Backbone:
C-alpha cells in the first residue's frame, strides 16, 4: 500500500527536519505538509524540498475542519504525524486562548477528520507529537517515565496535555490507531529565535542583553532536533498502537551552565575572546510558574525500539551555533517585522 503521510506543522522547527528526513529517506511515500504559516512557520526552512516529486505543501489551519477533511480526501491520507502547535511557553502566558484554539481544538479537528475519512482503521496511524512538559516539574531527583501522572503548569503544557488526552480518548473510544510521544527540549537549526538557544546565539552575535530568568537554575534536558526526527521515524514505523514513548537525550543542563557554554562557543566562532560575552548576561524577573526541572527517561524507546541519541551535546551545540552564524539572513528575516514588534512589547529592546 502506498503511504500518503500528512505531516502537520512541517514548516516549523522540528517539522521541517522531519519533512526533510521522510522526503529524502522514503521516496516511495507521498509527504503532504500542512501548515498555517504562523510567525513560527517558514517555507524558507524547506527550500531544498520544493522540487521533490514526493513532497506537497498545503497551506491550511488545522482548526479549519472542512479544509483538513479535504486534504484527507484529496491525498488519500493514511498516516498522520501531528506537530502543528503554538509552542512557546512565554507566549502562552500572554495569550492562552490561541494555545487552546490550535493545540486543543486543532488536534480535535484533525482527529475527527481522520476518524471520518478512514472507513477502516487497517494500516492507518495517527501519531501525535507532544512534550515532556505535560508531566509538570521535577525536584532535584528522578525522571519522567511514560507512567508519570500528568501535572502541567503553563497554559502551553496544559493545552498539550489536553491534546494528548483527546488522542488517547479517540483511541480508547473509537479504536483510532494512535501513538503519542513526549519529547524533551530540542535544539538545532531553524528554531525560531524566541526559544533560549537561538535567541541567545543571536543576541550574543548582536551584543544584546541575554535575559536569564530568575537565577538561571532551572534544568532542561536537551536533544538535537535531528535525533528527535530519527526517533519519530522509528516510532512511526515500529511503535505499538496505543502506546506512549518518551524521547530524551539524558542530557541535563542548568540554564546558566548551558548559557556559559553557548557564550564560549559563540565567542570562539566569532573570533572573540572566549567568555567575553558573559558581560551580556542580565538576570531578569522569573517566568511565572517556571518549572524547575525536566528530565526524561527514554529507556522504553531504547529497549523496545532500539533508538538512542546519535550526537553528543558538545558536537550538537557547536554545529548549532555555526549554523546560526552561517545563516544570519534567515535570522534577520524571521526577527524582522511583526515578530520584532511583539518582542519589543514583551521584553523591551532585548533583541
Ligand atoms: P514551532 O513553533 O517551530 O512550529 C510549529 C508549526 O506549526 C509552525 O510551522 C506553525 O506555522 C504551525 N502551526 C501553528 N498553528 C497552526 C495551525 N493552527 N494550523 C496549522 N499549522 C499551524 O514548533 P516546534 O518546536 O517545531 O514544535 C513542533 C511540535 O513538537 C509541537 O507540537 C510541540 O509541542 C512539540 N515539541 C516541541 C519541542 C521543542 O523543544 N521545540 C519539544 C517536544 C515537543
Ligand atoms: P525555552 O527555550 O523557552 O523552552 P521551555 O520553556 O519550553 O523549556 O526555555 C528554556 C529554559 O530557558 C527555560 O527554563 C526558560 C529559560 N529562558 C531564559 O532564562 N531566558 C529566555 O529568554 C528564554 C526564552 C528562556
Residues:
Amino acid at each position: 500500500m502506498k503511504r500518503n503521510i500528512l505531516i502537520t506543522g512541517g514548516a516549523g522547527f522540528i517539522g521541517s527536519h522531519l519533512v526533510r528526513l521522510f522526503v529524502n529517506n522514503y521516496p516511495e511515500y507521498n509527504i503532504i505538509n500542512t501548515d498555517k504559516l504562523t510567525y513560527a512557520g517558514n517555507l524558507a526552512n524547506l527550500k531544498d524540498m520544493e522540487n521533490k516529486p514526493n513532497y506537497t505543501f498545503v497551506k491550511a489551519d488545522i482548526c479549519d475542519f472542512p479544509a483538513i477533511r479535504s486534504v484527507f480526501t484529496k491525498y488519500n491520507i493514511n498516516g498522520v504525524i501531528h506537530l502543528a502547535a503554538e509552542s512557546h511557553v512565554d507566549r502562552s502566558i500572554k495569550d492562552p486562548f490561541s494555545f487552546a484554539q490550535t493545540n486543543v481544538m486543532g488536534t480535535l479537528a484533525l482527529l475527527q477528520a481522520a476518524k471520518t475519512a478512514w472507513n477502516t482503521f487497517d494500516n492507518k496511524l495517527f501519531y501525535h507529537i507532544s512534550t515532556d512538559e505535560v508531566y509538570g516539574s521535577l525536584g532535584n531527583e528522578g525522571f519522567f517515565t511514560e507512567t508519570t501522572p500528568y501535572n502541567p503548569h503553563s497554559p502551553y503544557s496544559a493545552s498539550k496535555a489536553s491534546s494528548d488526552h483527546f488522542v488517547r480518548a479517540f483511541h480508547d473510544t473509537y479504536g483510532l490507531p494512535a501513538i503519542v510521544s513526549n519529547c524533551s527540549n530540542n535544539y538545532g537549526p531553524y528554531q525560531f529565535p524566541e526559544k533560549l538557544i537561538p535567541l541567545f546565539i543571536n543576541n550574543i552575535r548582536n551584543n544584546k542583553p541575554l535575559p536569564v530568568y530568575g537565577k538561571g537554575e532551572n534544568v532542561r534536558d536537551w536533544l538535537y532536533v535531528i535525533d528527535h526526527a530519527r526517533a519519530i521515524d522509528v516510532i512511526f514505523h515500529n511503535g505499538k498502537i496505543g502506546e506512549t514513548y518518551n524521547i530524551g537525550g539524558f542530557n541535563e543542563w542548568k540554564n546558566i551552565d548551558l548559557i556559559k557554554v553557548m557564550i564560549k562557543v559563540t565567542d570562539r566562532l566569532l573570533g572573540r575572546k572566549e567568555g567575553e560575552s558573559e558581560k551580556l548576561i542580565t538576570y531578569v524577573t522569573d517566568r511565572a510558574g517556571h518549572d524547575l526541572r525536566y528530565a526524561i527517561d527514554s529507556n522504553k524507546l531504547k529497549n523496545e525500539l532500539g533508538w538512542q541519541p546519535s550526537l553528543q551535546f558538545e558536537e550538537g551545540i557547536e554545529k548549532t551555533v555555526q549554523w546560526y552564524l552561517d545563516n544570519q539572513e534567515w535570522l534577520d528575516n524571521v526577527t524582522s517585522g511583526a515578530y520584532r514588534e511583539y518582542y519589543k512589547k514583551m521584553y523591551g529592546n532585548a533583541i
